[in-house]
Amino acid sequence: MQERLTKIGIFGPGDLAILEGIHRRTSTHPAGHLLQPENGAIENARIMLSGWAVRFRSLASGDRQIINFVLPGDCIGLYGALFERTDFGVELITDASFAEFPCAALMSAFHQSARLGAALCWMAAQDERMLEQQVFRLGALNATTRIAHLLVELQHRLLTAGIKPVEAMSMPITQKHIGEALGLSHVHVNRCCRKLKKLGLIEIGAHGLTLLEPGELRQLCDFEPKKGPSADRADPAHGDLAVNLG
Amino acid sequence: MQERLTKIGIFGPGDLAILEGIHRRTSTHPAGHLLQPENGAIENARIMLSGWAVRFRSLASGDRQIINFVLPGDCIGLYGALFERTDFGVELITDASFAEFPCAALMSAFHQSARLGAALCWMAAQDERMLEQQVFRLGALNATTRIAHLLVELQHRLLTAGIKPVEAMSMPITQKHIGEALGLSHVHVNRCCRKLKKLGLIEIGAHGLTLLEPGELRQLCDFEPKKGPSADRADPAHGDLAVNLG
DNA sequence: CGCTTCCTTGATTTATGTCAACGTGCGTGG
DNA sequence: CCACGCACGTTGACATAAATCAAGGAAGCG
After folding, report:
1. Angle in degrees, CA A154, A90, A169, rounded to 5
2. Within an 8 Å CB–CB cutoff, is residue B9 touching chain A?
3. Comparing B40 with B117, which gets the higher pLDDT?
């Protein structure tokens, strides 16, 4: 398991021992599994090791709003210790595996390693950035560019998580998922996807979409790749991280 | 200043000393002031003591998307130490005052008090919940209910921050702000507001909107008030906080 | 006073949703 | 093996929400 976490690049080798100390177990679940119900309690924080999932919230009408997609390296329930109940559910899109940690232990780990605390903060900050992006898409873009923006962000996050570039072009999501995430009807998503396909920017396969021209997609939706001096690094010790507390 | 922070209810008395130790200064700025440019660096984290502001992101077209509203008790730049540059700007809607802290010192404060660390985490978690709400609005609601939902959330947050109930009904924002936040044209916002006014749910004054029937507004947009055993408490020592690390 | 900002309203256009229908592939049970 | 249902993609016709364009009014402010 260590290999996985370090490969994802979130933790330094020194902190792994601490994390290992509070690590409870690794779990695997099949596609479609409801990992967490809406309005449930959170006992464990999880880091996704592999697979795809969605965080969502249901409406009285029976529709649901996908808050965001969960990819390898992402956290679920990081703040579990702070609230009695969640206001969202988590459902797996593909088979997926997770490292599980008791919430309370995770929070107290802050005090054992400044470096680890910074890493956890960094992950929380990433989470917040993701949501900001989602707000931006929903508020400021039209259907086609919204889809393009989402696809580009997913690819970007996959790359950041250490997924191989070729695989990071492949999105195992249905057009219905896209609609639920972007507030569009699946019919309209379909029309926009066909348009993108006609432009040669994406490919529509049996098991999801594939990005063909990420560069053109970025251009289309005016996606900002966050070019810092040494961007695209997931490790908080380098690149994005401005202050090292070690 | 202590009175303000404790009144807002985020910190316990024990932690105030630590926070006071790293507190740099209190600043005040006039309405319209650009507190933080897009793409700038963050040197200070700020806690808003009074006033209203927006966090926004600009588009090439000249429009801007308001990510969220900043109210008393909210943090800005909590993660400042973790990134070299922000991807959003902050502009004041009204005159406002802030407590300022060097980012790095704030992060290291985690290690001086578990209670304080939990409080900061709690604030970050609140931030994330806010964004989730915003995503929900933008993705799942139509124009009128979107506006109602926003107004109800703002009122709820004002109450949580310790603002007096009467004052928490009053929103010093323009219809343009609402449009920029909710991805609607100001013309359409106006039509929806008039509809809400005609229903007797809000009042449209010279300096913003006033909620007349929060209950009916909640019902209209199916707003969940997060009723836990002892909800509506801002202090992480009680209510929402499930685990106390002290 | 003349400027600006904000609110307001009507007419028209555009983007997107809804409804309905059909095709495909795929798994399941007979 | 086949028949069936089911989830997903696709397309067309139509309905509706919201944007855009245009114009004017009211309040604040130099």
Report:
1. 20
2. no
3. B40
In order of A80, B21, B109, B115, the CA distances from B119 in angstroms are: 14, 17, 11, 6
The per-residue pLDDT of chain A, averaged, comes to: 84
pTM for the predicted model, two decimal places: 0.90
Per-residue model confidence (pLDDT) at position B102:
86
Give tens-digit pLDDT for A184-202: 999 999 999 999 999 999 9
Which residues touch A220 (CB under 8 Å, ≥6 apart)?
A144, A145, A148, A201
Residues of B in contact with A129 (CB under 8 A): 87
Residues of chain A found within 8 Å of residue B66, distances taken between Cβ atoms: 139
User: Cβ of A240 and B183 within 8 Å?
Assistant: no
Please state the rounded mean pLDDT for residues B212-238: 68
Q: Hey, are the CB atoms on B118 and A107 less than 8 Å from each other?
A: yes
Is the pLDDT reported for residue A109 higher than 70?
yes
Q: Is B231 part of the contact surface with chain A (CB cutoff 8 Å)? A: no
* H helical segments located in B109-206: 114-140, 143-160, 175-182, 186-198
Which residues lie near nucleic chain D, judged by CB under 7 A? Answer: A 174-176, 186-187, 190-191, 193-194, 204, 208; B 142-144, 183-185, 187-188, 206
